[in-house]
Amino acid sequence: MIEAAVIGVGQTKYEAKRRDVSMGGLVRKAIDKAMLAAEVDWDAIDAVILGKAPDMFEGVMMPELSLVDAIGANGKPLLRVHTAGSVGGSTAVIAASHVCSGNFDTVLTVTYEKQSESNATWALSPKYPYSPHINAGAGGYFAPYMREYIRRYDAPENIGWKVAVKDRLNALKNPLAHLQIPGIDENMVAETPMLWEPLRYLESCPSSDGACAMVISNKKLAESRNAAWIKGMAVRSEGTLSAGRDEVNPQGGQDCAKDIYDQAGITNPFKEIDCAEIYVPFSWYEPMWLENLHFCDLGEGWKLTEKGATEIEGDIPFNMSGGVLSSNPIGASGMIRFGEACLQVTNQAGDHQVDGANVAMGHAYGGAAQFFAMWIVSNKK
Amino acid sequence: MTEEKKDFFVSDISLSYQYTAGNATTRFLNKVAEGKLVAQKCPKCSAVYVPPRGSCPRCGIATEEELELPDTGAVESFTIVHIPIPGNPIVPPYVSAMIRLDGADISFLHLIQEIDLAEIRIGMRVQAVWKDKSEWGTTLENIKWFKPTGEDDVDPLVFKFKE
Question: Which spans in chain A are helix H?
Answer without folding.
Answer: 23-38, 63-67, 87-100, 120-123, 137-153, 158-171, 186-190, 219-222, 251-264, 269-272, 285-292, 301-306, 330-345
